[in-house]
């Protein structure tokens, strides 16, 4: 049986509680019932996490200003190098010449056409990739055999530069849009599928157990619990998938030239190289970069922010 | 064998098959072991236990008594190695130590998902979710995200979600263990109130003796490694109790003695 020392402590507490609670307990309890709601409201107020939203000025200073400063700095250094004549001006043209090339392209009415040719290809290719990669990722994540078979290939494909697919795609399909889409798919499908697999792998088992006790099984569980829980990983995969789509497309456009293909950003870049127009080449690179970033900032970043914020994952990250 | 027999003596009405009303939960000679042949770990050994409709039972034990395993078996998340478990009222609701609320849904939508999975028509879900939030005194929190709620509020939403299943049995796996003492006290009062308002049977697992005595009509002590029913106390202290009550303390001391005796056995072995 228990030693006297150990029980002594419990006893002492018990006795002191006895003396207090035997007198006037009913009165205390009635008051308790009335105070309960107030007590709870107080606790809730004390414990509730306050979420501070940043003001527009803060966003401007913290998020918008730094990249503008960085870009201005790069242009300034560029200009400095040109003024210092570190190299021949056909290798490093004046930033002003690049600006002129942009103006010219705009005035000719070609700028938007070129950008739209590439962007529409890229986004359409991305959507096809999305439609293929989502079921593929689900199956790889949930079916053991498929995972063992395709998992390593899928992650291996991510490290294969998509430009490597251009030569075989040209041989298989010829110089046409199908070839472009094939290259995009081979680049984007693995990264979207892998994102979904990673997202599903990171779903806490507790959610699945909770779902099962609520009666969610099979497809119902996939729809109501697994997929929403995997959404942050999936969205990260989408973002990466877009980057891969865009990169693959540019590789395809630079290598494959045909009058039937229409003039996209990649072809524009390659044409300027053939014309030995370095300002045009710089413009081409800048446009590819700016469009890629713009799509990410305008489409994917807001989706990701919304997903993370609604789960309280953004506030805690800071 | 003998511990199980003691239970039957201590609670004859609960375990005899001739009881008129169906029990809420009937656990009959349940064994559970984990591991493969050769290295089998018995976790539960011959558990026989009956919960009456509307009864509040606390299962108490130290580490390794298989409390959570037992709840998983009753919830149907796992199967016993031997013996039978009957839950005549259908799938029980289960509350975890972690709130297990889905962070992509608001508090209200978490409850509505449970209603939806239960088959409640769309039009009825919103008012029912509001009613359940009202029941756990979170009337204004329908649109709140999980991360905007405090620990105690989250467990109350989890309680509302469990009640949304409309099960006759509520299983609770140390649901308040991660809360601070003040909040836990308040939630004890809430649980007692909700239990008496809804008439649900509660099977509450804890390692906290006072919590068990504060809440339960019956406290069942399990031994550890493997879990066996050691003793069964009925708690005849009128509700609402307080954890500081003398009667609660007295019985807690008695049960703690028994629990410590069980734990000491492992030191000697």
Describe it for me?
The complex is a heterodimer of chains A (about 325) and B (about 270). Chain A has helices spanning about 5-20, 25-45, 55-85, 95-105, 110-140, 145-160, 165-175, 175-200, 205-215, 220-255, 265-275, 280-310. Chain A is an all-alpha fold and about 325 residues long. The longest helix of chain A has about 40 residues, at about 220-255. Chain B is an alpha/beta fold. Chain B contains 9 helices and 9 strands. In chain B, strands 5-6-7-3-8-9 form a 6-stranded mixed sheet, with helices on both faces. In chain B, strands 2-1-4 form a 3-stranded antiparallel sheet. The longest helix of chain B has 23 residues, at about 245-270. Chain B is globular. Classes of the chains: A mainly alpha (about 325), B alpha/beta (about 270). At the A-B interface, helix 1, helix 2, helix 9 and helix 10 of A face helix 4, helix 6, helix 7 and helix 9 of B.
């Amino acid at each position: 049986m228990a030693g006297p020392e150990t029980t002594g402590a419990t006893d002492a507490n018990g006795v002191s509680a006895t003396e207090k609670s035997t007198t006037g307990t009913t009165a205390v309890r009635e008051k308790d019932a009335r105070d309960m709601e107030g007590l709870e409201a107080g606790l809730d107020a004390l414990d509730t996490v306050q979420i501070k939203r940043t003001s527009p000025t803060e966003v401007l200073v913290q998020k918008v200003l730094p990249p503008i400063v960085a870009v201005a700095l790069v242009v300034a250094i560029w200009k400095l190098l040109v003024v210092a004549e570190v190299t021949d001006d056909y290798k490093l043209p004046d930033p002003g010449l690049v600006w002129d090339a942009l103006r010219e392209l705009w005035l000719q009415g070609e700028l938007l056409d070129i950008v739209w040719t590439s962007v529409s290809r890229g986004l359409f290719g991305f959507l096809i990739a999305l439609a293929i990669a989502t079921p593929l990722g689900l199956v790889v994540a949930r079916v053991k055999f498929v995972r063992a078979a395709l998992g390593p290939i899928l992650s291996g494909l991510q490290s294969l530069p998509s430009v490597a697919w251009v030569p075989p795609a040209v041989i298989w399909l010829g110089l046409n849009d199908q070839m472009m889409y094939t290259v995009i798919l081979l680049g984007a499908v693995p990264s979207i599928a892998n994102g979904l697999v990673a997202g599903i792998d990171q779903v806490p088992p507790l959610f699945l157990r909770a779902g099962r006790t609520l009666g969610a099984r099979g497809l119902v569980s996939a729809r109501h619990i697994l997929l929403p829980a995997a959404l942050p990983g999936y969205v990260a995969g989408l973002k990466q998938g877009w980057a891969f789509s865009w990169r693959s497309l540019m590789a395809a456009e630079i290598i494959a030239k045909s009058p039937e293909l229409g003039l996209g950003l990649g072809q524009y870049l390659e044409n300027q190289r053939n014309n030995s127009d370095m300002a045009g080449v710089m413009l081409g690179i800048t446009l590819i970069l700016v469009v890629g970033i713009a799509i990410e900032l305008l489409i994917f970043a807001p989706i990701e922010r919304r997903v993370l914020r609604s789960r309280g994952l953004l506030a805690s990250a800071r | 064998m003998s511990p199980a027999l003691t239970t039957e003596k201590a609670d004859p009405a609960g375990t005899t098959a001739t009881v008129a009303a169906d029990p809420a939960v009937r656990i009959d000679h349940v064994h559970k072991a984990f591991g493969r042949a050769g290295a089998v770990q018995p976790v539960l050994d011959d558990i026989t236990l009956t919960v009456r409709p509307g009864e509040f039972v606390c299962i108490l034990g130290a580490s390794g008594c298989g409390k959570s395993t037992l709840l998983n078996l009753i919830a149907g998340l796992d199967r016993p190695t031997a013996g039978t478990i009957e839950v005549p009222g259908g799938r029980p609701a289960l509350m975890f130590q972690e709130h297990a609320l889905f962070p992509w849904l608001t508090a209200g939508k978490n409850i509505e998902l449970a209603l939806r999975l239960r088959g409640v028509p769309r039009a009825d879900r919103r008012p029912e979710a509001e009613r359940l939030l009202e029941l756990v005194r979170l009337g204004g929190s329908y649109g709140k995200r999980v991360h905007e709620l405090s620990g105690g509020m989250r467990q109350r939403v989890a309680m509302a979600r469990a009640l949304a299943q409309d099960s006759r049995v509520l299983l609770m796996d140390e649901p308040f263990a991660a809360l601070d003492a003040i909040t836990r006290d308040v939630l004890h009062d809430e649980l007692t109130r909700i239990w008496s308002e809804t008439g649900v049977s509660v099977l509450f697992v804890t390692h906290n003796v006072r919590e068990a005595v504060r809440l339960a009509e019956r406290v069942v002590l399990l031994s550890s490694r493997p879990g066996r029913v050691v003793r069964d106390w009925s708690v005849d202290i009128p509700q609402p109790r307080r954890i500081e009550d003398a009667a609660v303390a007295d019985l807690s001391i008695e049960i703690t003695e028994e629990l410590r005796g069980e734990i000491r056995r492992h030191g000697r072995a």
